[in-house]
Amino acid sequence: MPTVSLDALFQGLLGASSLLIGALLGICWQPGRVFSAAIMAFGSGTLLSAIAFDIAEPVYEASGFWPILTGFMLGGTLFTVVINYIDDRGGFIRHPSSSRRFLYHHRQEETSEILDRITHVEMLHNLTPSEVQAIIPLLKPLSVEPGVTLCQEGDPGNAMFIILSGEAEIYKGPQLMALLGPGEMFGEMALLTGEERSASVIARTPMELYELDRGDFEAMLTRSPHLASGLSRILARRLRETTQSRAQQREESDEHWRQRVLDSVEVDFPLSEQQFQQLAKSSAPLAILVGTLIDNIPEALVIGFNAGIGHLSSSFLMAVFISNIPEALSSSIGMKQAGTSAQRILILWGGAVLLSGLTATVGSMLTNYANPWMVGTAQSLAGGAILAMLSSTMMPEAYELGGGSVTFSTIAGFLVGFWVVTLSLG
Q1: Residue 202: is its pLDDT beyond 90?
Q2: Helix (H, G, I), strand (E, B), or coil: what is residue 121?
Q3: H helix runs in 205-284, sequence order
Q4: Which residues partner with 323 through β-bridges?
Q5: E-assigned strand segments in 53-112
Q6: 11, 188, 207, 256: which one has the fewest Cβ atoms less than 10 Å from its Cβ?
Q7: Which of 263, 266, 216, 258 shows the shortest CA–CA distance to 103?
Q8: Residue 255: predicted pLDDT
């Protein structure tokens, strides 16, 4: 029994040792997209082969189908729940896919909050959801006191405004021309035409507004060239008076429009350097590490189970070793961007390697106190977690980075894993 535990510890440390290799690559060198994709895809192929021939097949032969079904379903569910919990607490930046999920939900929440305030702006309803979505990140909240001049007649137009609350007066020279209230927009004509302000706008009451400056407006027009024609249509369709029935219809229309804009939320809008730094600061190095450990614990447990039943799986060790490199590489890049020092990153990954070895040791010891059905279920649970990790992170990221070329890397990884299994059987 002590010998078995030592074998499990050694194999667990060996399989996880590539985490340090990946960490060093992430600190010292950022490989190209194609290279990273090839490693990820090859590792995915070897792990798929290992799941099939080192987990599912032996468990089926020893205990039948039910432990496989039970274990895989529980493992996939448990992995998904735990990883979502970790990502919500700052571990999201360890993978591009989890970063994109976080960014998507963050933008949905941000969009929903702003839409609650601007849904009643009827002029925006003439824009497409994607155009509104392009505007939202650029809006800057502004509060002003009564008497503040927001636009001065004859001045260059450097911003447009959306009124959330309060009222403003429009003056042409000394003459009061009109009042503006919540839901109305002003200043857009000067941005569209490039001409000077045609009137002055002065706050009549305390006001809450959103401001869109000229630089952001022009950048937005570059992204959505037909936005200018959309705003021109708005100017031609301004409505000053509404009836009660019209207001009710607009309320229903507002909710429909709001949902369409929310549904159009994307993660493909380019991030500025400042926005990316804010995203990185939202992450937590400890959560990144814990999340990556959760990715590796199932693998270490399988190594321990195999050692406990006297089965040395070269193919599974190889699969774990290869797949850990891109895992630690992308995670280390994320921690580095979040401000973690290189020394601390290496210490954290050294701890992860040690914990993987200890987890393998625990897995080998469990085989001494459980019947074959329970061991098979536990192995299948770990296999389900590994399969969930592959489907949610490694395989989508590999395809995103390398496109169709990852097909051959994945096939190569699977065939190499299968070949190593046949060698061990022969």
Answers
A1: yes
A2: coil
A3: 214-223, 227-236, 244-263, 273-281
A4: none
A5: none
A6: 256
A7: 266
A8: 63
